[in-house]
Amino acid sequence: MTPAFDMALIQRGARLRRSPYFDATLRAGCRAYTVYNHMFLPTRYDDLHAEYERLRTGVTVWDVSVERQVEITGPDAFEFTNLLTPRDLSKCAVGQGKYVLITAEDGGIVNDPVLLRLGENHFWLALADSDVLLWVKGVALNSGLDVRLCEPDVSPMQVQGPKSKEVVRRLFGDGVAGLRYYWFAETDLGGIPVVVTRTGWSGEVGYEIYLRDGSRGVELWDRVMGAGADLGIAPTGPSDIRRIEAGILNYGIDMTLDTNPYEVGLGWQVDLGQEGDFIGRGALARIAEEGPRRRLAGVEIAGAPLDLNMTRWPVRAGGTGSEAIGFVTSAVWSPRLERNIGYAMVPTAFAELGTRLRVATRDGERESVVVRKPFVDPDKEIPKS
Fold it and tell me: Which domains can be identified in the chain, with CATH numbers?
């Protein structure tokens, strides 16, 4: 059977890596890939709205091996890892995960990984799209700390949606299925070594299965798909519609090295009262005192349904032709809310709820208004359930 997607459209040579699940994604009929952390990320198997509905009502599987891990071990691993993030890791127990930021000396965001603490001095950072292994090697070089840094053979997949708990129960039992939000278990599936976490990038109930033996990717994929066959399990790409509804940010567009935690609503990540030092502490303390000059606001954009923006759309405070004051980072049509929703980076004075703005979409300028985000389930009751 001819694969549904011609990899020659985006690949020349062997520089870009393929995940342990890659052959399974081709076999399943993946229709589009992007490049993320120097690997192929499957982004679409079906109509994106159909994939969104499967995620909301059933159970989906995503190949997210592109979430590469930085592993930090050694006698000083805790001190070193705590240095990387403004979040106080003394409050993270072994067996627990945390969503964290990695910050630069000026407070800019280097990455926003999920951190797993596998031991007192053993950490994984499950990364968004930036070369954090190079960053941490640079930090370690003259730190005087005794740490070992590497990218281990670890490849996650996500199992997301309201029926994901039943799939995980069938695979691993009640103990793993009943994990608390952001906790994890080290286990195996028929001898396949894995770590299962109660995490996800969807705003729905979900889990991530971190494969620890890359030679067994297709085997693990088939076991997971088999466990959910009667539940309608299906592979999809990560859903931008659902993550925007949930207020989840995408590193590289909604936040970058040029933005700081306070600008994007993640000031709660910065623990200035902790005993341990961290990179960017002085800069973040100044920003906290002075207040950010701009903010990432939630916006509703009037008019017909919009597809996910492929570029940053200019935002204006006045009429057509007026000077842009900011830009939309992400925007998409929400079938549930029946409106276009997204994020706009604008000066703080224009981020107040109810502020009227104009957005220059690909189809022309449209009225928009600043609204509260997350747009759906602001207290995260769904993923915690």
Answer: 7-67+153-244 (3.30.1360.120), 69-150 (3.30.70.1400), 248-371 (3.30.1360.120)
Q: How far is CA 11 from CA 16, 158, 243, 357, in A?
A: 7, 25, 28, 40
Neighbours of 120 (CB within 10 A): 9
3-state secondary structure of 205: coil
Rounded to whole angstroms, the Cα distance separating 41 from 189 reads 24
Decide: 372 and 378 in contact? Cβ < 8 Å.
yes
Give 17-73 pLDDT, tens digit per residue.
Answer: 999 999 999 999 999 999 999 999 999 999 999 999 999 999 999 999 999 999 999
- Report the Cα 70 to chain-centroid distance in Å: 16
Amino acid at 78: F
pLDDT tens by residue, 112-170 = 999 999 999 999 999 999 999 999 999 999 999 999 999 999 999 999 999 999 999 99
Mutual orientation of helices 132-141 and 77-84 as an angle, nearest 10°? 120
Helices 217-227 and 164-172 cross at an angle (nearest 10°) of: 120
Q: What is the DSSP letter of 229?
A: G
How is residue 320 written in tokens?
A: 């057509």
**What is the 3-state secondary structure of the chain?**
CCCCCCHHHCCCCCCCECCCCHHHHHHCCCCEEEEECCEEEEEECCCHHHHHHHHHHCCEEEECCCCCEEEEECCCHHHHHHHHCCCCHHHCCCCEEEECCEECCCCCEEECCEEEEEECCEEEEECCCCCHHHHHHHHHHCCCCCCEEECCCCEEEEEECCCHHHHHHHHHCHHHHCCCCCEEEEEEECCEEEEEECCCCCCCCEEEEEECCHHHHHHHHHHHHHHCHHHCCEECCCCHHHHHHCCCCCECCCECCCCCCCCCCCHHHCCCCCCCCCCCHHHHHHHHHHCCCEEEEEEEECCCCCCCCCCCEEEECCCCCCCEEEEEEEEEEECCCCEEEEEEEEEHHHCCCCCEEEEEECCEEEEEEEECCCCCCCCCHHHHC
Phi, psi of 283 (to 5 degrees): -65, -45
